[in-house]
Hints:
By secondary structure, the chain is α/β, with parallel strands linked by helices. The chain is 40% helix and 18% strand.
Amino acid sequence: xxxxxxxxxxxxxxxxxxxxxxxxxxxxxxxxxxxxxxxxxxxxxxxxxxxxxxxxxxxxxxxxxxxxxxxxxxxxxxxxxxxxxxxxxxxxxxxxxxxxxxxxxxxxxxxxxxxxxxxxxxxxxxxxxxxxxxxxxxxxxxxxxxxxxxxxxxxxxxxxxxxxxxxxx
Length: 169
């Protein structure tokens, strides 16, 4: 009963990804972001990501966006930056996810799922286990980029995934 009430009271939550500096991070929170996605890359150093996480107000969730499969590197980044929620875009298997959970205290895992076609519905049903949430995202088929594409996917597929009960766990 309590879990159901919590699910119903969650409402819509907003995560802004692609944060590369402290000013944008704090501005995003002032304008209503519940979570900030941080992806270590040339535009965001590990040190800047750590600074952003340390400066965030309470109740704002920093999320480390991970596209790699090197578990030691994911654990190192998470521990150094101070993040306990990761969003994975790679095809980590259940065993690898278990290793991550055992390596990072209190870890929450979001698995990003690229909505490509009808086969994605079946994939969502398979990939839901071992993670705390699924994030339905758009893929740019030309570049292969998942998320942050500025494109939309077929929302009927998202509706089908939601209707399948995958988010009821």
